[in-house]
Write a structure and sequence with these properties.
This protein is α/β, with parallel strands linked by helices. It has two helices and three strands, in the order E-H-E-H-E. Helix 1 links the parallel strand 1 and strand 2.
């Protein structure tokens, strides 16, 4: 962290949501608050291959994890794409 508390050459922080990070609303709010405090915009996304809550019943690519269901992608994505300062939305894997 620079002494000024601001980054001169960094525009945004990347955050990949997984269901085990807590509710998507709290996650989005916390990440937005932190980014704003640092003077950064946000790049949000979903870890669709290993970030599900298990409701899909589909095993993730990593042992012990689940892929997101279509409903999870839709619901989590709706919250994350509504975030202020969002500059890009992407999905991982």
């Amino acid at each position: 962290m620079p002494q000024s508390g601001r980054f001169d050459w960094l525009d945004a922080c990347v955050n990949q949501y997984r269901a085990d990070a807590g509710t998507v609303e709290i996650y989005a709010s916390r990440q937005h608050r932190t980014a704003t405090a640092l003077g950064l915009d946000i790049v949000f996304g979903l870890n669709i291959a290993n970030g599900g809550d298990g409701s899909s019943g589909l095993p993730g690519q990593a042992h012990g994890f689940y892929a997101m269901s279509g409903e999870e992608i839709r619901d989590y994505g709706a919250v994350l794409t509504a975030a202020p300062n969002l500059r890009l939305f992407l999905n991982w894997e």
